[in-house]
Automatic annotation (TrEMBL), chain A:
Residues 101-221 form the Anti-sigma K factor RskA C-terminal domain. GO terms for cellular component: plasma membrane. This is Anti-sigma-K factor RskA. It comes from the Bacteria. One of its GO terms (biological process) is regulation of translation. One of its GO terms (molecular function) is sigma factor antagonist activity.
TrEMBL record, chain B:
PANTHER family: RNA POLYMERASE ECF-TYPE SIGMA FACTO, RNA POLYMERASE SIGMA FACTOR SIGZ. One of its GO terms (molecular function) is sigma factor activity. Belongs to the sigma-70 factor family. ECF subfamily. Keywords: DNA-binding, Sigma factor, Transcription, Transcription regulation. GO terms for biological process: DNA-templated transcription initiation. The lineage of its organism: Bacteria, Pseudomonadati, Pseudomonadota, Alphaproteobacteria, Sphingomonadales. The keyword DNA-binding applies. PROSITE patterns: SIGMA70_ECF. Gene3D superfamilies: 1.10.1740.10, Winged helix-like DNA-binding domain superfamily/Winged helix DNA-binding domain. SUPFAM superfamilies: Sigma2 domain of RNA polymerase sigma factors (SSF88946), Sigma3 and sigma4 domains of RNA polymerase sigma factors (SSF88659). Residues 40-100, 137-186 form the RNA polymerase sigma-70 region domain. This is RNA polymerase sigma factor.
Length: 231, 191
């Protein structure tokens, strides 16, 4: 058979080759090194991985043995306590490399209502709030049993004003859930307001005067907004 | 497919998205939910690519440790949760294979029972728009190009292994794959 010379790979083709797993030896090492030095290349590798990933859906599932989960619990430390502090892992929000490079962190804030029974088919509520200006990352988990919001770190603007979290239910009237810090913390939700944390309602963060909080109404445009969906 | 089934699939997907987001803020029980919903699927992927049960078990552990550490980088706007998780499993399994210098074929009995993907592909395709688009774009390629891309990705094979196995010159394999990938990208970007 005639062996035509293949087209010279450009950067994107090289990214695809790494994503496919075609490379070995020094070619693979070189491509992995490029991942570390070139974020655009790393992103291209991940784009290719995600493009092709749906092919894997055809592989039949196989039930793994029981001991795997135990090992995962032990290695992550989550088996030690049901309520491992959320705070220590908040730094994880910065994300990490999965294929080889950094993934652009999504600018999102979300709130989730944990189901009271973890094995129940999950009345979970999730919302992604997207920043109006610049990247802001915040995650909030709502523990409905304790009525506590757990907040991750955020890159919201700093200054003499503080971020105030609002829930805006069907009646369209914003209710303040309180001022949130720019560091991870917990926020106890007024039981009268906890009932608003359900499907379809809007969450928003505005920058407000710290001293006079909580406020009856926001005084500025929100820096983050989004809707809760119950699953 | 019945409307009800589609709804169930959609709900599982949303559950998975929310569980990943909760895991990202350190909610341990959410990782358990992710595991329950996806471990059989990811174990299937690890087994298929490693061809070795013990290795697949070790890799599956690594995968969920990674998911726990990196759940914060999951972006539901960019990828479906199952595609993101499958990608992690695929990469971990390929890493293992490349570290093994495996040049042989799959060597574990467990793998021999794995069926051909074609019939299952049809069933799954109904549920997954991304997958449907990918399959339709792959169908648009020359048969030689699409089959070698599938084989590489689904079985974790290198250029050299594909060449050795098929008796096709290395340069030809590279041409097929590179031209195929270029066309695939154009097709996916057009869709």
């Amino acid at each position: 058979m005639v062996d035509p010379s293949p087209p010279t790979p450009d950067r994107d083709t090289l990214a695809a080759e790494l994503a496919l797993g075609l490379l070995e030896g020094t070619d693979r090492v070189e491509a992995l090194r490029l991942c570390l030095s070139d974020p655009a290349f790393a992103a291209a590798v991940e784009t290719w991985s995600l493009r092709l990933s749906p092919l894997l859906h055809a592989i039949p599932p196989v039930q793994p043995p029981e001991h795997i989960w135990k090992a995962v619990e032990a290695r992550t430390g989550i088996g030690l306590s049901r309520d491992v502090s959320n705070i220590h892992s908040l730094r994880l929000w910065r994300g990490g490399a999965l294929v080889c490079g950094a993934i652009a962190a999504s600018l999102a804030l979300f709130i989730a209502v944990r189901p009271s029974d973890l094995n129940a088919p999950a009345p979970m509520a999730v919302s992604q709030l997207v920043g109006a200006q610049g990247p802001a990352i915040m995650a909030i988990a709502f523990d409905a049993r304790q009525g506590v919001l757990r907040l991750s770190t955020t890159s919201l603007p700093t200054g003499d004003k503080s971020p105030e979290l609002w829930v805006i239910p069907e009646d369209g009237v914003p209710r303040s859930l309180g001022i949130i810090g720019t560091e991870g913390q917990e926020l106890t939700v007024d039981p009268a307001h906890a009932k608003f944390l359900k499907s379809g309602v809007t969450l928003a963060i505005t920058m407000e005067d710290t001293a006079s909080a909580p406020h009856k109404a926001p005084s500025s445009q929100p820096v983050l907004t989004g809707k809760i969906t119950v699953i | 497919m019945a409307q009800k089934d589609i709804e169930v699939v959609g709900r599982d997907r949303e559950r998975l998205v929310s569980a990943l987001q909760l895991a990202a803020v350190g909610d341990a029980s959410s990782l358990r939910i992710v595991y329950k919903l996806t471990s059989a699927k990811l174990f299937g992927i690890c087994l298929r690519i490693c061809g070795n049960r013990q290795a697949a078990e070790d890799i599956l552990q690594d995968v969920y440790v990674k998911v726990w550490r990196r759940a914060g980088s999951f972006d539901s706007q960019r990828a479906s949760p199952i595609s993101w998780l499958a990608m992690i499993a695929h990469n971990a399994a390929v890493d293992w294979r490349r570290a093994q210098h495996h040049h042989g074929t799959l060597d574990d009995d467990a793998v021999l029972s794995i069926a051909d993907e074609a019939p299952l592909a049809d069933a799954v395709a109904e549920q997954d728009e991304d997958r449907r688009r990918l399959l339709s774009c792959l169908d648009g390629l020359d048969e030689s190009q699409s089959s070698v891309i599938r084989r590489a990705f689904l079985d974790g094979m290198t250029y050299q292994q594909l060449s050795d196995e098929s008796g096709t010159p290395l340069g030809t394999i590279k041409s097929w794959i590179r031209r195929g990938l270029q066309k695939l990208k154009e097709c996916l970007n057009d869709g």
